[in-house]
């Protein structure tokens, strides 16, 4: 299930981020995104397994600044679900996503053809 993050879920989101990057350096940024309703969360039952942070002030387009799935929950389709949900928002149809190749691979996502694939 994908929902807009609630304030009371911030600790769980921060913990996933810490597990992925090793610290809480983005704490303020994440909390601000949650307060501004610009954070989506993916849930498995009631546990948060991933999140997406976006902004709408990028040259009149949307910018996805973070798309993170808990390491133990990857390859289960949560990132794709977050992207699909994001696309339903009444925002500019064009959006940008910067990728960092931490795992030496890139996930290619196409919102036009409903396909995604992993490129090694």
From TrEMBL:
<dbReference type="Pfam" id="PF00583">
    <property type="entry name" value="Acetyltransf_1"/>
</dbReference>
<keyword id="KW-0808">Transferase</keyword>
<dbReference type="GO" id="GO:0016747">
    <property type="term" value="F:acyltransferase activity, transferring groups other than amino-acyl groups"/>
</dbReference>
<feature type="domain" description="N-acetyltransferase">
    <location>
        <begin position="1"/>
        <end position="120"/>
    </location>
</feature>
<dbReference type="InterPro" id="IPR016181">
    <property type="entry name" value="Acyl_CoA_acyltransferase"/>
</dbReference>
<protein>
    <submittedName>
        <fullName>N-acetyltransferase GCN5</fullName>
    </submittedName>
</protein>
<dbReference type="InterPro" id="IPR000182">
    <property type="entry name" value="GNAT_dom"/>
</dbReference>
